[in-house]
Model the fold of this input.
Amino acid sequence: MTSNTTPLLPWKVRFTMSIISFLISVSRRSNDTVNRRLFNFFDRKISPNPNFKDGVYSSDVIVDPMRNLWFRLFIPSSNSFSDVPLPVFVFFHGGGFAMCSPSSIIYNNCGWKFSPSCCSSDSLRKVSKFESYRFSFNTTVFWR
Done:
């Protein structure tokens, strides 16, 4: 007797992914362009947290205000590893550079998870840098 042991996602993850998929579908026009005004209405934003939460704090760094080019840094607390330099993990968000940003709640939560201060190994501690770089044009997005 063979048992199919495919791992199942937790129901909260499946529910969240279903909602995100639905919102993306609703905000897509019939000509495959994105209605960003509608999508941004549903895209929950969160501000950086300058206070330590789970040993990590975040801050936004503006590179070029004319192009709205900025990034969010997630920095673990320094009390656990003194003056040891940390590697920088650069993350380009998966919105196809067309939707979402590092301030979107889903990517902000990823940043907290990518910069743990309570790792068992110093080699896993890092500073995470989430880019907000709009690479795509306001034209057709290929979904198929």
Notes: The beta strands are 56-64, 69-76, 88-92, 127-132. The chain has three helices and four strands. The helical segments are 11-26, 36-42, 105-114.
